[in-house]
Amino acid sequence: MTFTPTFPLSGGGRPRGTIFLRLKGGWRRFARTLLLVLASSTLLLFPALAASGKRPPPPGAFAGAPPEFTRFSEHELARGFMVLAFGSDLLIGKRPKGIRRYTHPIHARVIATGSVDRAQAMTNILKEYARKIPNLHLSIVGSDERADIEVRLIDEENFKSALEAAFGIKITHTFVERTDPQCMSSVKSDASGEIIHSISFIIVDKGKEVFLDCAYHELLHSFGLSNHDQSNPWTTLNQRRMVGYLTVYDRSLLTLLYDPRMEPGMSRREVQALLPKLIKDLGLAIASAHRR
Questions:
Q1: In this structure, are residues 3 and 196 in contact, taking their beta carbons and an 8 Å threshold?
Q2: pLDDT 10s digit of each residue in the chain, 292 long?
Q3: DSSP code of 197?
Q4: Backbone angles phi and psi of 10, in degrees to 5
Q5: Is the CB of residue 95 less than 8 Å from the CB of residue 5?
């Protein structure tokens, strides 16, 4: 297979200047983030936000995690999808032209080398994604099997060296200088928009809050929601928030992304035309508080 060397990088910190980098790590303060022009213009296409169905965070969330909303309008879902499925924080290689996603069953592997054992917790999070978004066809494989997604659990002191080993000193320096990340993902896709491989680095020794926030955040990137949206109050991919669980909102966006009708490489115009029908057919814009 021939593919373009496209590596959208994401990480975990607070927002800062946006270039083509995606980072998250809610606990650190960052300077102001400049949103992509696309994100700003997309906001104008949709009416005011009015989500409802507010409820407490789910069991297992860290103490102080924000509540979630469970009911969204078509416009709120479409707006979020258009912002988060296009663009990224730092791009290495050619600019991707459309939707990126896996097109085959996804195999994920957890590689734990940190001083705090969070391998089972990470495995449980992957299983939650698999259970709640069936079209991911996600499964967990052992250390000797091929994996599409690698989740590397490391200590903070080894974060920079791990990035250097994976991406080289120059790329790591650029990424860290612009984002000061707490966690990070790289997603490699081919010319058609099909994701070839994803790798996420998750810090395990900075407490439960940081671990959960990064783990849920970075998996969204690995599956193809490559951007951030600092103006969206419901997504984990808002770097101004610490969430630490799979929200109904983000689950809805992944459900849209992995519907068979949402194909890799689709343009913004094609996606915008498709979204109303998808949202209606999937029942995502109706009351969803009963979904678990």
A1: yes
A2: 323 334 455 555 544 433 333 334 433 333 233 222 233 333 333 344 567 899 999 999 999 999 999 999 999 999 999 999 997 755 555 555 799 999 999 999 999 999 999 999 999 999 999 999 999 999 999 988 999 999 999 999 998 888 888 778 887 777 777 666 778 898 999 989 999 999 999 999 999 999 999 999 999 999 999 999 999 999 999 999 999 999 999 999 999 999 999 999 999 999 999 999 999 999 999 744 444 4
A3: E
A4: -135, 155
A5: no
Query: Domains, the chain, ranges and CATH?
Result: 7-281 (3.40.390.10)
Residue 236: how many CB atoms within 10 A of its CB? Answer: 28
Rg (CA), the chain: 17
* Cβ-proximal residues to 245 (8 Å cutoff; 6+ apart), any chain: 57, 58, 60, 61, 65, 68, 212, 216, 236
Backbone conformation region of residue 162, classed left if phi is above 0, alpha if psi is from -120 to 50, else beta:
alpha
pTM of the model: 0.81
